[in-house]
């Protein structure tokens, strides 16, 4: 059986997910910077993961505040 979630709870969950995505973007950027000189493959992987979380963040932003993020950024 599925739980029914009201709109306020759904928004709270989306906002928590957005906060998590922001933290992941920062963490992967930092990891990529740390690995830049020592491990090119690891740095590339970190950049790729950071970009993926940026995409998630843009989607969640659009859900919370439609039109806030300009296209292509």
Structural class: mainly alpha
Tally of helical runs? 2
Helix fraction bin: over 70%
Radius of gyration, taken over Cα atoms and rounded to an integer in Å: 16 Å
Q: What is the count of β-strands?
A: 0
Principal-axes geometry comes out as elongated
Largest sheet descriptor: none
Distance between the termini: 39 Å
Query: Could you name the ranges where pLDDT drops below 50 across 5 or more consecutive residues?
Result: none
Strand content: under 5%
Instruction: Name the average pLDDT.
Output: 90
What is the string of SSEs from the N terminus onward?
HH
Structure, described:
With 73 residues, this protein is mainly α. The chain is elongated, with a radius of gyration of 16 Å. Helix 1 (7-35) packs antiparallel against helix 2 (40-64). The chain has two helices and no strands.
Structure, briefly:
By secondary structure, this protein is mainly α.
List the helices and strands and how they pair.
Layout (H helix, E strand, L loop, with lengths): L6 H29 L4 H25 L9
List keywords for this structure.
about 70 residues, mainly alpha
